[in-house]
Amino acid sequence: MSNFSFDVITLFPTAFDLIKNLGVITKALEKNFINLNLYDLREYGEGSYRQVDDKPYGGGAGMVLKPEPIYKAHKSITKLPRNKTLLMTPQGKVLKQQDLIRWSTLDQLILICGQYEGFDERVRYLADEEISLGDYVLSGGEIPAISIINGLTRLIPGTLGDPNSLIDESHNKPLLEYPHYTRPFIFDGMKVPDILVSGNHEAIRLWREQKSLERTSERREDLLINKDNRNYQGGKLKTKDPNGIYQFPIFYECETYPDW
Ligand code: SAH
């Protein structure tokens, strides 16, 4: 049984109550596949007021998290052999599935959540990596940290009922996943593609591969033109016909999507 520790430094530990209500993630916590330790930054604050923030040198809006409480909290964490410290910041590298996969072989992630205007620049020296959830600014690092905990926990063996669900899903390969359908066969005049009830497993596999490629080219062309994808299927993905329609290396005679 694998066991992964998340240690989070935050001014708002109660934000992590969400993890106690997140289905498979909550189960992973209950089964000790993961440990979650919260370090309330306020407890490491300075003086009788437990001060954690101060005005920025040079003036300007907002308050900045002081370095001492964050360093003290970080020092108090018992480090496991393979650990990394991640700093939540909109100035960091934008989080990708590949990062979660990469970190899933560690023993421990220490996550530092900022608040207000952010943190004193010297806090950066604690971090092995600076991570952003995306190109937008949130009020704190708690939601990015919860996102990392959630995404990484799914990868830990035992967490998902069927580990095969990790294989085809979006961003595991540099492709988006194919469309899914469940019952009823016809809903509100919209019908499930016949091929999915054909019982022909090879035809279904090819249809799914085709849809995955089409979907990625329609929605996320950027994924197809990155260097990893150019290698995907020998770089044939970027071929367009004279009408600008993508020609995929695989073609299976089937209804176009959507097919109602
Ligand atoms: N003034 C800062 C933003 C501060 S937002 C700047 O311009 O860079 C306050 C805190 O929220 C940050 O310290 C960070 O911990 C968190 N945060 C906000 N947006 C984020 C994002 N996109 N990804 C990760 N953390 C983020």
List keywords for this structure.
single chain; 260 residues; alpha/beta; Alpha/beta knot; Trp Operon Repressor, Chain A; five-stranded parallel sheet; two-stranded antiparallel sheet; 8 helices; 26% helix; 17% strand; disordered C terminus; binds S-adenosyl-L-homocysteine
How would you summarize the topology of this molecule?
Blueprint: E1 4-10, H1 24-30, E2 34-40, E3 53-54, E4 64-65, H2 67-76, E5 83-94, H3 97-103, E6 108-112, E7 129-132, H4 142-153, H5 165-168, E8 186-187, E9 190-191, H6 201-219, H7 221-224, H8 227-231
Parallel strand pairs: 1-2, 1-6, 5-6, 5-7
Antiparallel strand pairs: 3-4, 8-9
The structure holds S-adenosyl-L-homocysteine (SAH).
Residues 88-91, 113-115, 117-119, 132-134, 136-138, 140-141, 144 line the site of S-adenosyl-L-homocysteine.
Give a description of the structure.
The protein has two domains: 4-153, Alpha/beta knot; 167-256, Trp Operon Repressor, Chain A (Orthogonal Bundle), CATH 1.10.1270. The longest helix is centred in the C-terminal third of the chain and has 19 residues, at 201-219. The protein is built from eight helices and nine strands. The termini are far apart. With 260 residues, it is of the alpha/beta class. Mean pLDDT is 88; it is low at 229-238 and 245-260. Strand 5 (83-94), helix 3 and strand 6 form a beta-alpha-beta unit. The protein has a five-stranded parallel β-sheet with strand order 2-1-6-5-7, sandwiched between helices. Bound molecules: S-adenosyl-L-homocysteine.
